[in-house]
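Hi there,

I know you've been waiting on this one. I reran it after we fixed the sequence typo, so this is the corrected version. Both the input and the resulting structure follow.
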Amino acid sequence: MTDSALLLIDLQVGFDERSWGERNNPNCETNAARMLAAARASGVEVIHIRHHSREPQSPLRREKPGFGWKPETAPRGGERRFVKRVNSAFIGTGLAAVLDAAGITELAIVGLTTDHCVSTTARMAENLGYAVTVIADATATFERVSPWGDRVSAEALHDGALTSLAGEFATVIETDAWLEAV
């Protein structure tokens, strides 16, 4: 699997704040950590991405504790790290150049949030020619209010985002299926 990479997106402490609202998939980090351990053991390239928000009050700003990595999926030693300022891990980071130089053609994506940074990164990765797999039970999101004022559950947004990605932009599978392939 020397042509594969595991992208861990925005697994940051700031997403633990209650202000985000209801979240689906409480096992997201556990599953991502299982995948991270397997990637490290099998030589799959590991790449950590985190968000540095432009919003002054965001817990994801570099100077706030929320910018920190979640301990169970934190980078080690030589693992690559990128900081992004927008939803896509490819904009302004040099990620594509690093992947291309390393001969990476396949990406497995985990992290937060399914309908924002995970989805945007997966779509762009596919558009750039990478084979993309999004791990459904190693991603999660939060509830939101629609433009019409209706509450949309985290689970509905998660399922909708994965449904939009499936087949067109990515293969969508569960953690155990990915672990079997590694």
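Quick highlight: The chain has one domain: 4-181.

Best,
R. S.
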